[in-house]
Design brief:
Distance between the termini: 42 Å
Structural class: alpha/beta
Strand order of the largest sheet: 1-9-8-2-5-3-4
Shape: globular
Radius of gyration: 19 Å
Strand content: 15-25%
Number of helices: 10
Largest sheet: 7 strands, mixed
Mean pLDDT: 84
Length: 306
Amino acid sequence: MKTSSTTWKGKTRGGVLGYKIFIFILKKLGLRSAYVLLRFVAVYFVFSAPGATYSMFKYFRDRHGYSRIKSFISVYQNYYVFGQTLLDKIAILSGMEHKFSYTCHGLEHLKGLKETGGILISGHVGSWDIAGFMLQEADIKINILMFEAEEQKVKGYLEKVVKSEHVNIIPIKQDFSHLFLINNALKRKEIICMHGDRFVAGARVEKVNFLGKDAFFPLGPFVMASKLKVPFNFVYAVRGKNFKYHLSSTPAVLDPSLKPKDVLYKYVHSLEEKVKQYPLQWFNYYDFWSEDVKGGIYESNENANN
């Protein structure tokens, strides 16, 4: 089996053509038919994406202690569930939200942000895009930070399909112009949503024990959470059975004494709990526990807190 990729490349595998095919099937044949096609697509990715497949095999085998057979089957199941979340996102945002049901735990923590604005940090477990849709119940405008490579890839096409006025995408740019958009959104008491489990070349990172082995996490989101003087929450939306999604949020935290590493450690603890509960919904398709930082700037001293 091919050696796994040791870093995330700043964009997700897939393209506009795939979205077009599935959107066509969704409109003409319905969501269940799209799921049937997805089973074949999941098998295809098991064999056509050996790096990602090996990374996920190691994840199930080493981090969860599954047998070899169960690990291999879980890789297929993981691809299938990931595909379902993508299809569900397109279906929901294109006007088919009535087909889904939702449960929320901690919605009161999110509604409280309407008066202050705030930062929501999630991870690549479950579906953050669907979490954004569910947050509309709190009647808050949300802004999702997305790496520019991903944002440019599919946003133009999806904008022709989706019908959401509550969700805005802020692309993360190398010239840091996104920081001005973030500050302006917070001044309007809106919500900034971001992931805390991926980084690109040049990012400051910190090594933290996660699922029994050290892994590198970006410091940027946690510097932002500790410096902008607005509340922050950890939020996840995971897929259940029979078209159900569950949104959960931790209580909001606003503590000026917290340093970036303090926020990071709190986040990793919450992420670990969620991944243990939903192991099939971990969607980082590279060697997350690689000891090679691959372009990240690792500071193993107290200066990383500043």
